[in-house]
Amino acid sequence: MKLSIIIPVFNEEKTISEILNRVYEVKIPHVEKQIIVVNDGSKDGTQKEINSSPVVSKIKVIVHSKNQGKGAAVRTGIKNAAGDYIIIQDADLEYNPKDIEKLVRPILEGKSKIVYGTRLKRLPSFSKEERTPQFLLHYAGNKFLSLLTSILYGQWITDMETCYKLFSVKAVEEMKLNAKGFEFEPEITAKLLKKGYKILEIPITTIPRGYNQGKKLNAIRDGTIALWTLIKYRFVS
To answer: Which letter does DSSP use for residue 59 in this model?
Structure first.
């Protein structure tokens, strides 16, 4: 099995080098990795950090001349994927690349073709960032959107907004994806479910990044867009 790991990145000069090292170091038995980094028009030192990474010669780097959004960056990655399966990896340090092996295991065992890493089979710990109103709003919004996804598309989902989405290339090769921003998450979930795929969720742990540390998701703005996206794709393709 060959796995394409797509890393969309925008203005992550502080974390991109570390995440590249961590992803590259992940060893998964019986799996060949392709690492694709899509620099989505970063204006800081992100590209300099990528170029100076010790693993840069072993990864595929694509640069957008201007910022287009996470969805657009992921779509570019999908077009350049050479693997049988694809997984998305954020460029910050919230998600631990060691969890990728846990998500791949059900694929290798033939139990599923779509696997999501769920963060929401737990309550907030109310420590540090997780006790802030912004985080709690984001947490509650994600729970609501996941519940709405379950109702609209007929399959129970606990974490629709998770970054860790592992899917087969076959599942998306004829899929028309339109998202440019964070609405990529509800769009691809809606379209996978409409095609009849069952999503297997595997619990993962994350270290939530603070909004003062560069977290880009806006709970109200992006949540509203996600809500409309879920409703829209229930009725149109």
So the answer is: S
What are the helix (H) ranges across the chain?
16-25, 46-51, 70-79, 100-108, 133-153, 169-172, 184-194, 219-235
> Contact at 8 Å (CB) between 15 and 47?
no
Condensed to tens digits (0 to 9), the pLDDT of residues 148-183 reads 999 999 999 999 999 999 999 999 998 999 999 999
- What is the rounded distance in angstroms from the CA atom of residue 170 to the CA atom of residue 186? 19
> What Å distances lie between residue 13 and 119, 176, 184, CA to CA?
25, 32, 23
Q: Are 41 and 68 in contact (CB under 8 A)?
A: yes
Q: Enumerate domains of the chain plus CATH numbers.
A: 2-235 (3.90.550.10)
CB 229 within 8 A of CB 177: no
What global pTM score does this model have?
0.90
User: Cα 47 vs. chain centroid, distance in angstroms?
Assistant: 21
Tell whether the model's pLDDT for residue 212 goes beyond 90.
no
Amino acid (1-letter code) at residue 56: V
Q: Which two tokens stand for residue 208?
A: 């939530």
The two tokens of residue 228 are 């409309």
For residues 5 and 124, give the distance between their C-alpha atoms in angstroms, rounded to a whole number. 28
Classify residue 116 by its DSSP letter.
E
CA dihedral 175, 87, 168, 38 (to 10 degrees): 50
Is 9 within 8 Å of 37 (Cβ atoms)? Answer: yes
